Amino acid sequence: MNSRIQELAIQSGFKKYKNDDGLYSPYIEGYDLNDEIEEFAELIIEECLSLCENERDLQQIKEHFGVK
After folding, report:
1. Whole-prediction pTM
2. What contacts 8, CB < 8 A, 6 or more positions away?
């Protein structure tokens, strides 16, 4: 997983495994993750917009998030 995407996921409420790069939800089974997923998406959009304000280059956004 791209490190920036992982940072945004953690910022939105997901947790990181101690000895792994994986992420998990700290909530009990059946917990509705809609708020965390929405926050995660908003953080990604905000970051994309900030890149576009400085550099209108789609390739830069792809590289920033590790999208091929």
Report:
1. 0.60
2. 40, 43, 44, 47
| Sequence-distant contacts of 14-18: CB under 8 A, at least 24 apart | 14/40
Q: How far is Cα 34 from Cα 11, in angstroms, rounded to an integer?
A: 15
Question: Amino acid identity, residue 28?
Answer: I
Give the Cα separation of 58 and 48 in Å (integer).
9
CA angle 56, 60, 21 (to 5 degrees): 140
Which of 61, 65, 66 has its CA nearest to residue 49? 61
Span 21-61, pLDDT tens digits: 667 666 666 677 778 888 888 888 888 878 776 666 777 77
